[in-house]
Amino acid sequence: MRKPMVAGNWKMNGTREGAAVLLQAIKNSHQKFSDKEIVVFPSFIHLPLAEKELSNTDIQWGAQNLYLGKSGAFTGEISGAMLKEYGCRYVLIGHSERRLHFHEDLNLIAEKFKSAIDVKLKPILCVGETKTQREKNETEKIIKEQIISVIEKVGIKNFEEAVIAYEPVWAIGTGLTATPAQAQIAHAFIRKLLAEQNESIATKIQLLYGGSVKADNAAGLFLMPDIDGALVGGASLEAESFLKICEA
Ligand code: PGA
User: Fold this and answer.
1) Total domain count for the chain?
2) pLDDT for 88-126, tens place per residue?
3) For 19-33, 187-201, 222-236, which range has the lowest pLDDT when averaged over its residues?
4) Segment holding 180, helix H or strand E
């Protein structure tokens, strides 16, 4: 069956000292979570700290972004090959903040997904609609476009090593969570969409929910049949709330 997964997206947060303290707290609880996949996504600059603290635990770490190819004249960018050197196993692709603030379009996101696969990093593809799109009843259309554009680039087979996070944009950092029922509808839609391409991948792939997941709403979401875990932003910045979500 699908292993439950909780991923913490730290975004552009954390000091050197704060990151070390948070990593140590997570490390100290790691034995409680051997039946789950726990992954943290610190900023690039804190990845060596994650490697140092988490290397001998079951907890994984990954990056929030990457750029295409292995190396080259791309000032300010980091490649998948570099991330692998620091022990990353996962990378977030297409987070809504990348789509919005950094103008990452469907094509670039598909290319980034491919770059991750090429170096055997597991992509967590983030998809989700804005408030306006939901109000216009476009949720499924948007999710479909965001997933199919990647399948067209890399093929469904390459989703064997991927995870998808459904993150409605209106729920990210706003304190507004999708209800378990709303999230389940979107997750079931995603699984059905994948099943049209490959039944076995659709059954196996972990689908995470993201958007204001907190210690007090996680359990309700995790009860839903197609929700396999969470991608957590704000609540992953404190050990106590993050670990409570892992326990849920
Ligand atoms: P949030 O962020 O939990 O702070 O809403 C989730 C995310 O952006 O992945």
Assistant:
1) 1
2) 999 999 999 999 999 999 999 999 999 999 999 999 999
3) 19-33
4) helix 180-195
CATH number at residue 203: 3.20.20.70
In a domain, 215, yes or no: yes
Locate 181 and state its tokens.
């029922």
- Residue 167 appears among annotated catalytic residues: yes
How large is the C-alpha radius of gyration of the chain? 17
For 82, the token pair is: 């570099």
Whether 127 is in a domain gets the answer: yes
Check if 95 is active-site: yes
Q: How far is the CA of 73 from the centre of ligand 1 (A)?
A: 32
Instruction: For residue 214, give the ligand 1 atom closest to its CA.
Output: 3
3-state secondary structure of 81: helix
Distances (CA, A) of 140 to 39, 74, 119, 128: 28, 35, 31, 9
User: With a threshold of 0.85, does the pTM exceed it?
Assistant: yes
Q: Which atom of ligand 1 is nearest to the CA of 210?
A: 6
Residue nearest to atom 2 of ligand 1 (CA): 233
Q: pLDDT by residue (tens digit) across 173-221? A: 898 899 999 999 999 999 999 999 999 999 999 999 999 999 999 999 9
Residue at 137 is within a domain = yes
Does residue 61 sit within a domain?
A: no
The whole-angstrom separation of Cα 217 and Cα 32 is: 20
Q: Which residue has the tokens 């998808």?
A: 164
Output helix, strand, coil percentages for the chain, rounded to the nearest 5.
50, 15, 35
CA quadruple 200, 202, 203, 206: dihedral sign: positive
Q: Which domain holds residue 237?
A: 32-37+67-247
- Stronger pLDDT, 157 or 176, i.e. the higher one: 157
